[in-house]
Amino acid sequence: MLTEKAKEILKGVETKMGDTVSFLEEDLKTYRVGKANPSILNNVTVNYYGTDTPVSQVASVSVPDARTITIQPWERSLISAIEKAIMAANLGFTPQNNGEIIRCPIPPLTEERRKDLIKKAKAAGESAKVAVRNVRREGVEALKKAQKAGEFSEDVQKEGEDEIQKVTDAKVKAIDVLVSAKEKEILTV
Question: Domains of the chain by range and CATH?
Answer without folding.
Answer: 4-29+110-187 (1.10.132.20), 38-105 (3.30.1360.40)
